[in-house]
Structure formats: C-alpha cells, structure tokens
Please model this.
Amino acid sequence: MNDTVDKLVIFLAKRDGIDKLVKTFQYVSKLVHWHVETTHPDIAQRAKQWEVASGLSRKAFRSGRFLTGFNALRRNPGSTLTFRFLAVLANAGEMVYFFFDHFLWLSRIGVIDAGLARRMSFISAFGEAFGYVFFIISDFIIMKEGLEAQRRISLQLKAGDTSKEKSMEMEQKVRQIRADRVMRLMAVAANVADLIIALADIEPNPFCNHAVILGISGLVSAWAGWYRNWPS
Model:
C-alpha cells in the first residue's frame, strides 16, 4: 500500500502525470454530460462546466511545452537517417500543436480575440495530427525491428550453442524487447486516440465528433499515458 502511495506521489509530481489525471476528469465529464443530458439537465450542465474547466486548465499547464520537441531532437535525433527524418517531422508537428495551443487557450479565456479560437484550434489540431502520424510510423518500425531481433535471439537460444552466461544475457535482452514493445503499443494507442480527437477539430464529422467516440478516445489516451508514466 505504501509503495503504491509513493508511486502515486511521484506520478503526480510530474507534469505529464497531472496532465493525464486532469485529462481523465475532462473526458469522464464529457461522457457523463452525454449520458445525462436529456434526463438530468442540471447534472449535465455541471459535467459540461467540469469538462471545459479541465480542458482549459490542461492548456494552461502545458505552457512552454512546445520546447520539449527541441530537447527531444537534441537528445535523441535518431540512429539512422530514416529515424532522424521521422523524428523531425513528428516533433515539428507536436511543436506546432503545443505552440498554437497557447493562442487557443488565450482566445478561449478572452485575453485575445475570441474569434481566433477556431483558426488556432485548426492549426493546433493539424500540427497534432501531422506529428502523431509520424510518431505512430516510428513506433511500428521499431516494434518490427524488435520482433525480428527477438526471433533471431530465440533461434540462437533454441540451437543451444551458447554459454550459460550468454544465454542469460540473451534472455534479458528478450525481456527488454518485450517491455519496450508494451510501452510502444501504449504510445500507439494514445497517439491513435489523440489523432481521432485532432481529426474532430480539423474536419468535423459524425464519427469523430460523437461524444462517446471523443470520450473513449480521450480516456484511452489518458490511461495509456498514465501506464507509460507510472513509476516502475
């Protein structure tokens, strides 16, 4: 119990941890609003206010986050030319998303012209969707390479022509590949969910803009991010 509490404290001390918690509030309240809109209008109104407040607070809390893209490229530009290219495109899209999200937030709270909200929302969502496409492609390529490496190691282990110490190292490598694949699957789930939310802003349509689809997508993104950021 104490270990769980300690991990929760560490998780909530991170900016991403707080963001995932508030994102959960935001999309749970969206689903509650949809569910009780016709039967309990007073509760629906409160849920809507909670959703709006959560969304605005997340935007405020993400101030300056567009700079993390520069840091990501500086620290890990990619091992090959292909991955460097994908990393530049993915992080560039994410930087556009977070940068214009500042102006969307300011227009929503009335600091700048409220009429800019729709334009800022479109640019921000377009950058978000653009970046997530390349993040997803990168993760699938890395998972494919990991599966191939795991297959090669498994064949060597089955052959039985390695020392005990070498076999233990190879088994540890397989565990690392599997753990990395789980994390990348969580990242893909979150990015696909956020891509659906972004498409709802870019090109409103009955599927992406349905409250249930948006609510589930938001929760998938939040909980996948929660899993990835939870202290090991």
